Amino acid sequence: MAQAIPFRQASPLKASCHQCSLSNLCLPLAVEENDLDRLEDIVQQGRIFNRGEHIFDQSTPYRACFAVKSGSIKTSIITESGEEQVTGFFMPGELVGLDSIGSENYACTAKALERTSICEFPIDKLEELTGKLPELQHHMYHLMSQEIQNSHQLAMLLSKNTAEERIAALLLSLSSRFQRRRMSPTNFSLPMARNDIANFLGLAVETVSRVFTRFQNQGLIKARGREVELLDIEGLQMVSREFSRQCNN
């Protein structure tokens, strides 16, 4: 198993949670202004990982969860047959490692998809702080609940839907996540390669390519490499409507 790369400081200057543009998405969202210093006291900021480097590895001791500050992260597990199964993609403002809270070891491996900056929250200090800040504890419960919901939705997506529905749902999810970060919801660069998309959605790489081509021919998207433009959001929503209906039941 690959070993986690030692942390490296991105800069001798420590960024402030007060000033971070992602504070409305990350843990500071749940903390009152006068308590932010207490959160900053435990966070280790400015860790940089290059593409392909591991933030943590499956089955190694669980010591921290991580917030993506810039870049993107892929999580995966190694199955009993020794194959990699991609389990998620994380963008700026999202927390990685929440699925391991309450466990002794990490449930998955987290790897940088590109040059990525993270903030580290040591779990022992975070648990101590949540005991003192009820609003932070409530927010953590909310985030863990979202993790469970995402797992259920993924299981449903993989078990009942066509390739077109799966890919449309993924593109719409990315669109929504980019919009929450005040970025364009219709023009963006995919952080993951198509083989990772195929692995995540339980499809062959050739199937992913065919569906992208079909969507382009139907005027739903325009794609060149990893650059994607969503031309018809409503059309994609119609393709994925069955998935959305099932998730809302």
TrEMBL record:
<dbReference type="InterPro" id="IPR018335">
    <property type="entry name" value="Tscrpt_reg_HTH_Crp-type_CS"/>
</dbReference>
<dbReference type="InterPro" id="IPR036388">
    <property type="entry name" value="WH-like_DNA-bd_sf"/>
</dbReference>
<feature type="domain" description="Cyclic nucleotide-binding">
    <location>
        <begin position="27"/>
        <end position="97"/>
    </location>
</feature>
<dbReference type="InterPro" id="IPR014710">
    <property type="entry name" value="RmlC-like_jellyroll"/>
</dbReference>
<dbReference type="Pfam" id="PF00027">
    <property type="entry name" value="cNMP_binding"/>
</dbReference>
<dbReference type="InterPro" id="IPR018490">
    <property type="entry name" value="cNMP-bd_dom_sf"/>
</dbReference>
<keyword id="KW-0238">DNA-binding</keyword>
<dbReference type="Pfam" id="PF13545">
    <property type="entry name" value="HTH_Crp_2"/>
</dbReference>
<feature type="domain" description="HTH crp-type">
    <location>
        <begin position="161"/>
        <end position="234"/>
    </location>
</feature>
<keyword id="KW-0804">Transcription</keyword>
<dbReference type="GO" id="GO:0005829">
    <property type="term" value="C:cytosol"/>
</dbReference>
<dbReference type="InterPro" id="IPR012318">
    <property type="entry name" value="HTH_CRP"/>
</dbReference>
<keyword id="KW-0805">Transcription regulation</keyword>
<dbReference type="GO" id="GO:0003700">
    <property type="term" value="F:DNA-binding transcription factor activity"/>
</dbReference>
<dbReference type="InterPro" id="IPR000595">
    <property type="entry name" value="cNMP-bd_dom"/>
</dbReference>
<dbReference type="InterPro" id="IPR036390">
    <property type="entry name" value="WH_DNA-bd_sf"/>
</dbReference>
<dbReference type="InterPro" id="IPR050397">
    <property type="entry name" value="Env_Response_Regulators"/>
</dbReference>
<dbReference type="GO" id="GO:0003677">
    <property type="term" value="F:DNA binding"/>
</dbReference>
<protein>
    <submittedName>
        <fullName>Transcriptional activator protein anr</fullName>
    </submittedName>
</protein>
